[in-house]
Amino acid sequence: MNTSISATHAQTAVLATNKVIRNTYTLLSMTLLFSALTAALSMALNLPHPGLLLTLGGYFGLLFATARFRNSSLGLAFVFALTGFMGYTLGPILNAYLALPNGGQIVMTAMGGTGVIFLGLSGYALTTRKDFSFMGGFLMVGILVAFLAGLGAVFFEMPGLSLAVSSMFVLLMAGLILYETSNIIHGGETNYIMATVTLFVAIFNLFTSLLHLLGFMNGDE
């Protein structure tokens, strides 16, 4: 009897996990497409970058709203608002890179690298089903340190530190992809809206960090 109950619970847990995975990757695909559309619109209209303070205010404000309403349909609206806003801020950055001599190649290489890293790491976590929860504390501290160092690099105009921060973010976002995918598989994250946001932010930061590093290596920055 107990064995039967345990088997039923295990089967229910597996079905719930599979549903979260399916919903997460469906929503992630939709938000990536929506963000790409807003970035393209921002580029076509040649919109100016909103600036650091407005960008941070919009990002953290929409992130807070998404987390606040993650269990309601309003949370979905905030997910698209957040990813659309991030796409808008990406438009002027892409325009700046495309204006460079090797800009098109840099953007395409960064995009391809981001896709390969994300698919490779997600596929690895999904197939091996390894538990990467031990990385949680390290990633939290690392992202906070890198974020503060990035702000310092902007305010004090330190290009060397800015490059170091981009390198840190590439490694940290790769770790975040592994961690969050593992978190979904093992039931640590049961809300597909928050899982989507975490993976989207990892992909976004990975792409912009690769852009920065590739631009420097090509001698265009």
Give the structure's gist in a few sentences.
By secondary structure, the chain is mainly alpha-helical. It contains seven helices and no strands. The chain has helices at residues 2-44, 52-68, 73-98, 103-128, 136-155, 159-185, 192-217.
**Outline:** globular
The whole-angstrom Rg is: 19 Å
Quaternary structure annotation: single chain
What class do helices, strands and sheet pairing give?
mainly alpha
Name the poorly predicted regions.
none
Termini separation comes to 68 Å
> What fraction strand?
under 5%
**Tally of individual helices:** 7
Number of discrete domains: 1
SSE order, as H and E? HHHHHHH
Main sheet overview: none
* Average pLDDT number: 92
Helix content: over 70%
How many β strands by DSSP?
Answer: 0
Can you characterise this structure?
This protein is mainly alpha-helical and 221 residues long. It has one domain. Helices cover 84% and strands 0% of the residues. The longest helix is centred in the first third of the chain and has 43 residues. The chain starts with a helix and ends with a helix. The relative contact order is 0.14.
Main traits of this protein?
221 residues; mainly alpha; 7 helices; 0% strand; globular
